[in-house]
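Sample intake sheet
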Amino acid sequence: MLKRVFYSLLIFIILLLLAALGLDRWMSWKTAPYIYDEVQDLPYREVGVVLGTAKYYRTGGINQYYQYRIQGALNAYNSGKVDYLLLSGDNAQQNYNEPRTMRKDLIAGGVNPTHIVMDYAGFRTLDSVVRTRKVFDTNDFIIITQRFHCERALFIARHMGIQAQCLAVPSPKNILSVRLREFAARLGALADLYIFKREPRFLGPLVPIPPLHEVPDDAQGYPAVSPEQLLELQQKKN
């Protein structure tokens, strides 16, 4: 009896893993037509969205995922493929600010500060993608990140009716652990989209890109809408 239960459980686990692997491959297949590996093949869009990550590993070394995304953003901007860069990342802690860090490095790389848009409420990929549409009022944009992340971001976008494409920047070698986390993240994204119907943690008023008013040359990037401001707006709305 115990042997039969064991084998039944084993078969069930195997079937679950096969289903999960199938969903992972399905996500890759569905988004493949919208991913570009070379900047010269990228279609022109007004806005490029750089998905945030930490600049440094916990050990103190430079994060190559971050480096490749910044370089990809510079390449897209300098090649005239995008006019504005929306920097979407986490700002949950006072001493950790992904958009601000990206902004500094992009300006150092030659990007006009008035062409940089800050989104401090990109806590998750879903937040970054959906807020680009609902807060920053653009429905057709270029996402800039690694290929495996492109696939998940584009799947979310297409599910939400957002016409996005993605520039797939290089990935560091030995990404097995990251890819395993991505496997779990994809299952989480599917649950968010099809089961929980999640929305971004924060929304807010429309802030179109490009701005409806002239931005001064010494602007510090726009719009600096913090999570606290968005929460306050939500509370007033409710």
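Comment: The chain has a mean pLDDT of 87. Helices lie at 2-31, 64-78, 98-108, 125-134, 147-159, 176-196, 227-237.
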